[in-house]
Fold this sequence. Notes:
alpha/beta, 2 domains, 13 helices, disordered C terminus
Amino acid sequence: MVISMDDSWKSPVLAIDGGGTRCRLAVADGHMIVSIETGSANVSTDFDAAVREVMQGLVRLAERLERPMGALYALPAFVGLAGVTGPAMAERLRTALPLKHVRIADDRPAALRGALGGKDGVIAHCGTGSFFAAQINGASRFAGGWGPVLGDEASAQWIGRAALRMTLESSDGRCDPSPLCKHLLSDFGDTAGIVRFAGAALPSQFGALAPLVTEFARRGDNLACDIMRSGAGEIVRTLPKMGWIPGLSICLTGGIGPHYVPYLPQDMQASIMAPEGEPLDGAISLARDLTKDLARDLAKGLAQEIAYERH
């Protein structure tokens, strides 16, 4: 996507937002946004592959802009990637990337900033993975996002796993069968096919089953509806712990998030608001914050030099 109002190049920033499904990179300068998209970029799932996606994206972005790679490397940059679990992972990523002025975080701050802008509210982000976040009185708080083994409740991959698990249970007679079960058994051949798939599937492959579940839930399939109610229950359980009270805005983001609306209680449904923007918009905003901080540090340094010379 290229959106251009003029050809000026004023205070450009680099923004990178990546998760289990895709990675998006953009250069923005207040007049123009140029963005491209690459594949999955989760540094905990596959660090080397995530770095390759980012680097390939930088190459493509430089080509679109008709600028040398070094020009991108010099821009103030915010990088938010899934799987950045702490300072050690952030430093590993900083070392692997050739960016000169970069702030690194996981993918949650960009999603929060993109969804709420400067407003107070909470989000339940349900994409391939999931997390919860709040922005209240200028303070941000995050929870979840611990990956497919220990967390990611209500995410797309969580829904896909649940559908396969319940299909196996129905074949054992432990729960009532449904059209969704029959569909999945047909798709995978039999229960053995489901087990083979699950043994090697990536989170994104489990997540690819989620639209099937939401469609069957829309038709009233009992198993699909149970899965969606269970996911909505995770949202209902968590958001009050994040500081949500009736009347405070709720954004349901990610590919699956909005599908939970009919399964939430009325007070939560009444608080739903559409996101102001996407995670990439949040990453651009956070990159601009870095630009301001760099300018402030430079001004402070110059002031100290001047004061020293006077003495």
